[in-house]
Design brief:
With 939 residues, the protein is of the alpha+beta class. The protein is built from 30 helices and 35 strands. The longest helix is centred in the C-terminal third of the chain and has 19 residues.
RNA sequence: GCGGACGUGGCGUAAUGGUAGCCGCGCUGGCCUUAGGAGCCAGUGGUUUCGGCCGUGUGGGUUCGAGUCCCACCGUCCGCACCA
C-alpha cells in the first residue's frame, strides 16, 4: 500500500476537528500542564516555514505530556492589534478589522494544515471587545494603585491618600517619579486638580509630562524597547526626544522583583542576562554637594564613591532642572544656546557623535570631603533620565570624564597606586587607593591603602553616617510609555472631568473602539480617535453619565489615545485559562488549577519587550490577588529564526545568457535572485524560469553536465529575495508529517538556521519505511510473533532516548533516534514492537501515527494511548564478568564486552604502566574496557 | 567598552571526561529498472609502506584519558552601551 499522506492527513484532521479531540477542561483528577506558544500577529503575508518551528516543537511537547497522562492546556490566539493593518487602512480605506480577520482566517487554515493540537475553543483575539475589556480593566486597576516600596507590592491609592491626609509625605514608602516633600496641611489645602496631578507621581499607570520617544515618521510615541539606535524598530524612522504628556506604566517600581524572579525560572542564561542588562541594577551612592554662595545642595549619583578625592568638575544633563537655577547671568546666553542645540538633535545624532561638548554654568560646587571648589558644567554626555541627571567628573577613573577633562583642561588626578593616566583613564575597579586625601590635605575620610572595593564601601558608610548623602540602588529600566496616537488599538477607559483624567466605571467596560472615516490624525492634530463622530459624545458618554449620576448636561471628552501593542499581550496566558468568563479576567478556580505556563515558546525578539511587560503585568495581578504565580512563564525556550536560502542565476553582463554556477568564473556575470520554487537541489527548472517573466522567455543557458546549477546564499526570508518557503507547498508535496519531522530534524531548536530542502527526502523516506512495515503489498502485515531480545533492546533504547530528548527539547536527535531504530529493526512487523513505536511517533507525526494506530486495530484516538513504559532490563550491555589479577596485588573484576578475550585485556592494562602504578594496592571495583583501551576505572 | 554564546567532514549536525564524526544530505560503486529527481545493498575525515600515523579554530595546562574542564589568543554571532 502506498503512503498516501494526503488522504491520511485530511482524514484525521477532519476527524480531530469533528470530535474535538484536543478540547480540554479543568480536571482535578489529573495533573495539569500548560504549554503555550507566543501568539502571532496575523500579517498579510501568511505563515512561512519559520513560524511553525516553535509551534511544532510545543505541539510535540504537548502531545507527549498528554500521552503521559497530563491534562494539557495548549491554546492559540492572535495578537490582532498592530501597525501594518492600520497602515494598510490608511492607504486603502479598508477597515483594519476586516484585513485582520481575513489574515486570521488564513493563519488558521495554515495552522490547521500542520496538525497542531490546539484547543480552538479557547482562542482569543486581542481586538475582541470581550477580550480587551480586561486589558482596560487592568489599566484602571493600575491607575488606582501605587507601589509600596516597603511592602514590595502594589497597594490601593486610597491608602496613600489617607497617609497624605495625616502625615504628608513624611514616612511615605511609595515608588514615585520624583521625590516630593509636603506636609499634611499642604496636601489638604490642595484643590482637586492639584491633588490629581500630585497623585500621578505615584500611580502605577500615570499620566505625566515626560521625555518620550517621539517618532514623526509613525506619528506616535514609542516605548524604549520599540526604539533601537535612535530608529523605530518598525519602519526604521528616526526617533527624537520630546517632552509630552503621555500615559506611562511604572515598570521601574518592579525592577527588583523582575531581577529576583529571574533566579527562580528556567530560562536560558543568555535571555536572563539580556533582561538583567535591560533592568541595569547598579549599586552606588547619592552624594550632596553644596553650591558655592547659595543655600542649595545638588545631588549626584556615583558607583565610584571611592573617587570623591579626584573630582575636578560637575556636569549636568542639558535637560536637568538644575541648569536654569545654576546658570549665572553672564553665562545665560551661552547655556541657553547650548541647551537649544542639543534639543534639536535626534537621539541618534546625540549618540553617534562621540564628541564631548559642554558649557560652563558659572556656578561652583563644594566637595564635601575636601572643601575644594569645582566648576559646574552642562554637557550632553550626561543623561537626564538616569540617576539624578548630574554627575561628578573624575577624569582619572572614568573614560568619559577623561575626554571631557582633556578637552576643557580640567585637572586629572590619579587615585590608584601605579595607575598611569597620562594617555587614558583607568576605569577598572581594582588596585590600591592613594591620594585620598592627597598629602597635606585634611579630611575626615581616609581611603589610602585600601583596595578600591573596600574604599567604595567605606565611603558609602561614611556618606550615610555623616548625612552627606545615602546609599542608593539605581536601575536603568524606564517606565513604559503606554499611549499611542494610533487608531488600531485598545481605547483608554479614561475621560476628562474639568481636565482631570478620570477612570470610566468598571461596569461601563469595555469602551469599544469607535468607527472612524479616516485613520489619520484630525486636522487639529488629535489622534485618529478624534475623528470618531459617535462614541465620545453619545453612547459612551451617556453610559458614563448614567453610571456616575452626574448632571447629564455635562459632556466629558474621552481620552483619544490607544494602548500599545504590548498591552493586549501582557495577560493573554491568563485569559486562555478561562476565555469566555464575562465576570473576571480569569476565575479563581481556573487560575488555581492552571496556575502558570509550564512551557513557553517564542522568539528571542521579545526579550526586553513582551517578556518584561507581561512579567510586570502578572506581578501586579499577583499583588491584586487575581493571579497566583509570581512568575508567569516557568520554562521558556526561544526558537531560532529560520533564514531563507536564496538561489541565483548568473547572467552574462549585457546578454540574456545564463551560466551555470560552476562555470560562472569564466564569464563576467551578474547574479540575479531566482524564485526558489523553480529550483530543486540547486538545479534550475529552465522551462519554469523562462515562463517566469517575458524578460527570460528567450534566455539562453550554458549548462554543466546537462544541468543548470544555481548559486545560493543564506539571507533573511523575504519576498524580495524570492526565497520565501511557504509551508503550504511543503505540505502539498510531502505532507504535514514530513514537514513537522523535517523542521525538527534541521538542528537544535534554539539555533538560527537556513531553510534548506535538501534533506527533506531523507525524513520523508523514513516515514515511507515506517509505513511499509505495516503492509505487505496491499494487505496488512502486522503479526503477533513475540519480539526477540535484540528487538526489545532497540525498542527500549528508543523509548528512553525519545523521552529524554523531548524533555530536553532535543528534537533533532529524537528524529535521528527514530531513524536508527528503524534501521536496526529492519522488517520487524510484530505488534509488540510496532504498537509502542507508533505511540512514540505520535507527538512528532500525529497523522501517520493515528492511521497506524487504527490499522493496529484500535478504535479510539492514539492521543488517549499511554506512553510506553521503559523496561531497563533490556538495556543492559552484553558483557562478561572476568576476574583478573596482576602481580598478585591488584585484583579486580572486569566488566568486558563479550567479544574481548582475557589476554587482550591483560595486554592493554599491562602496557599502561602508569595506570598499573595507580592501581597498585588500591581496591578496584570496576574497570570498563573497550577493545584497545581502558575506558573507566572505578576505585 | 561591558556581558553572553559559539568554533567538529563537502553540508546540516551527534558525542553523562572514556573507540570523535551517530542520523540525514551529498558523493562513489553495485543491484533492480524502458526510464529515474523511485527502491535496495555497500562505501565515504586525512594520510599510509595497510602495521599504523594525524585529526574537533591556535597555543598552553589539569587528567591514566580532553571536542568536552581551566588559562591565553584568534575568529564568528548576539544583547546592552556616553547608565557615571
Amino acid at each position: 500500500m502506498e503512503y498516501n499522506f494526503r488522504a491520511i492527513e485530511q482524514k484525521w484532521q477532519e476527524t480531530w476537528k469533528r470530535e474535538k479531540t484536543y478540547r480540554v477542561e479543568t480536571d482535578k483528577s489529573k495533573k495539569k500542564c500548560y504549554v503555550l506558544d507566543m501568539f502571532p500577529y496575523p500579517s498579510g503575508a501568511g505563515l512561512h516555514v519559520g513560524h511553525p518551528l516553535g509551534y511544532i516543537a510545543s505541539d510535540i511537547y504537548a502531545r507527549y505530556k498528554r500521552l503521559q497522562g497530563f491534562n494539557v492546556l495548549h491554546p492559540m490566539g492572535y495578537d490582532a492589534y498592530g501597525l501594518p493593518a492600520e497602515q494598510y487602512a490608511i492607504k486603502t480605506g479598508q477597515h483594519p478589522e476586516k484585513t485582520t480577520m481575513e489574515n486570521i482566517a488564513r493563519y488558521r487554515e495554515q495552522l490547521d494544515m500542520i496538525g497542531l493540537c490546539y484547543d480552538w475553543d479557547r482562542e482569543v483575539k486581542t481586538c475582541d471587545p470581550d477580550y480587551y475589556k480586561w486589558t482596560q480593566w487592568a489599566f484602571i486597576k493600575m491607575f488606582n494603585h501605587y507601589y509600596d516600596t516597603k511592602a514590595c507590592k502594589a497597594k490601593p491609592i486610597a491608602d496613600l491618600e489617607k497617609h497624605l491626609e495625616s502625615y504628608g509625605t513624611e514616612g511615605l514608602t511609595a515608588a514615585g517619579s520624583k521625590e516630593l516633600f509636603f506636609t499634611a496641611e499642604e496636601w489638604n489645602a490642595m484643590d482637586v486638580k492639584a491633588k490629581s496631578d500630585t497623585l500621578m507621581n505615584w500611580r502605577i499607570a500615570y499620566k505625566a509630562e515626560t521625555m518620550v520617544n517621539w517618532c514623526p515618521g509613525l506619528g506616535t510615541v514609542l516605548a524604549n524597547d520599540e526604539v533601537s539606535e535612535g530608529l523605530s524598530v518598525r519602519g526604521g524612522y528616526p526617533v527624537e526626544q520630546r517632552k509630552m504628556s503621555q500615559w506611562s506604566l511604572r515598570v521601574s517600581a518592579y525592577a527588583q522583583r523582575l531581577l529576583d524572579g529571574l533566579e527562580t525560572i528556567d530560562w536560558t542564561s543568555s535571555l536572563k542576562d539580556t533582561q538583567r542588562n535591560w533592568i541595569g541594577r547598579s549599586e552606588g551612592a547619592e552624594i550632596k554637594y553644596k553650591i558655592k554662595g547659595r543655600d542649595e545642595e545638588i545631588t549626584i549619583f556615583t558607583t565610584r564613591a571611592d573617587t570623591v578625592f579626584g573630582v575636578s568638575f560637575m556636569v549636568l544633563a542639558p535637560e536637568s532642572e538644575w541648569v536654569k537655577k545654576l546658570t549665572t547671568p553672564e553665562h545665560e546666553a551661552e547655556v541657553a544656546e547650548y541647551v537649544a542645540e542639543t534639543k534639536k538633535k535626534t537621539e541618534l545624532e546625540r549618540k553617534s557623535q562621540h564628541n564631548f561638548t559642554g558649557v560652563a554654568t558659572g556656578s561652583y560646587a563644594i566637595n564635601p570631603f575636601t572643601g575644594e571648589e569645582v566648576p559646574i558644567w552642562v554637557a550632553e554626555y550626561v543623561i537626564a533620565g538616569y540617576g539624578t541627571g548630574a554627575v561628578m567628573g573624575v577624569p582619572a577613573h572614568d573614560s568619559r570624564d577623561y575626554e571631557f577633562a582633556k578637552k576643557f583642561g580640567f585637572k586629572i588626578k590619579s587615585l590608584i597606586e601605579g595607575a598611569d593616566v597620562s594617555e587614558h583613564s583607568v576605569d577598572a575597579k581594582e588596585g590600591i587607593v592613594t591620594n585620598s586625601p592627597a598629602e597635606g590635605l585634611e579630611s575626615e575620610l581616609n581611603l589610602n591603602g585600601l583596595t578600591v572595593k573596600e574604599a567604595i564601601e567605606k565611603t558609602k558608610r561614611f556618606v550615610a553616617e555623616k548625612g552627606i548623602g545615602q546609599v542608593k540602588v539605581n536601575y536603568r529600566i524606564r517606565d513604559a510609555i503606554f499611549s499611542r496616537q494610533r487608531y488600531w488599538g485598545e481605547p483608554f477607559p479614561v475621560y476628562y472631568k474639568q481636565g482631570i483624567p478620570t477612570m470610566v466605571p468598571e461596569e461601563c467596560l469595555p469602551i469599544e473602539l469607535p468607527q472612524v472615516d479616516k485613520y489619520l490624525p484630525t486636522e487639529t492634530g488629535e489622534p485618529p480617535l478624534g475623528n470618531a463622530k459617535v462614541w465620545a459624545w453619545d453612547e459612551v458618554n451617556k453610559k458614563i453619565v448614567e453610571n456616575t449620576k452626574i448632571d447629564n448636561q455635562t459632556v466629558f471628552p474621552l481620552d483619544l489615545n490607544t494602548m500599545p501593542g504590548f498591552a493586549g499581550s501582557s495577560a493573554y496566558y491568563l485569559r486562555y485559562m478561562d476565555p469566555r468568563n464575562n465576570d473576571a479576567l480569569v476565575s479563581q478556580e481556573a487560575d488555581e488549577y492552571w496556575q502558570c505556563v509550564d512551557l513557553y515558546l517564542g522568539g528571542i525578539e521579545h526579550a526586553t519587550g513582551h517578556l518584561i511587560y507581561s512579567r510586570v503585568w502578572n506581578k501586579f495581578l499577583v499583588d491584586l490577588g487575581v493571579a497566583r504565580e509570581e512568575e508567569p512563564f516557568h520554562k521558556l525556550i526561544n526558537q531560532g529564526m529560520i533564514q531563507g536560502r536564496s538561489n541565483f542565476v548568473y547572467r552574462v553582463k549585457g546578454t540574456n545568457t545564463y551560466v551555470s554556477a560552476g562555470l560562472k568564473d569564466q564569464y563576467d556575470v551578474q547574479p540575479i535572485h531566482v524564485l526558489i520554487d523553480f529550483v530543486k537541489n540547486d538545479v534550475l527548472d529552465i522551462e519554469a524560469f523562462k515562463k517566469w517573466s517575458p524578460e527570460y522567455s528567450d534566455a539562453e543557458f550554458v549548462l554543466e553536465d546537462g544541468k543548470y546549477v544555481c548559486g545560493w546564499a543564506v539571507e533573511k526570508m523575504s519576498k524580495s529575495m524570492y526565497n520565501v518557503v511557504n509551508p503550504d507547498n511543503v505540505v502539498k508535496d510531502y505532507g504535514a508529517d514530513t514537514l513537522r519531522l523535517y523542521e525538527m530534524f534541521l538542528g537544535p531548536i534554539e539555533q538560527a538556521k537556513p531553510w534548506d530542502t535538501k534533506g527533506i527526502d531523507g525524513v520523508h523516506r523514513f516515514l515511507r519505511k515506517f509505513w511499509a512495515l505495516l503492509w505487505d503489498g496491499d494487505t496488512l502485515a502486522i503479526n503477533e510473533e513475540p519480539a526477540t531480545q535484540a528487538e526489545l533492546k532497540t525498542l527500549h533504547k528508543t523509548i528512553k532516548k525519545i523521552g529524554e530528548d523531548i524533555e530536553n527539547f532535543s528534537m533533532n536527535t529524537a528524529v535521528s533516534a527514530f531513524m536508527i531504530a528503524l534501521n536496526e529493526l529492519k522488517v520487524c512487523r510484530k505488534r509488540s514492537i510496532l504498537e509502542p513505536l507508533t505511540i512514540l511517533l505520535t507527538p512528532f507525526v500525529p497523522h501517520i501515527a493515528e492511521e497506524a494506530w487504527h490499522l493496529l486495530g484500535h478504535t479510539t484516538t492514539v492521543c488517549d494511548a499511554s506512553w510506553p513504559v521503559l523496561e531497563e532490563q533490556y538495556l543492559v550491555e552484553d558483557s562478561v564478568q572476568m576476574p583478573i589479577s596482576f602481580n598478585g596485588k591488584v585484583r579486580f573484576n572486569m566488566e568486558l564486552p563479550s567479544a574481548m578475550s582475557k589476554e587482550n585485556v591483560e595486554k592493554t592494562v599491562l602496557a599502561d604502566e602508569r595506570t598499573l602504578k595507580q592501581l597498585e594496592g588500591k581496591s578496584i571495583k570496576k574497570v570498563i574496557v573497550v577493545p584497545g583501551r581502558i575506558v573507566n576505572i572505578v576505585c
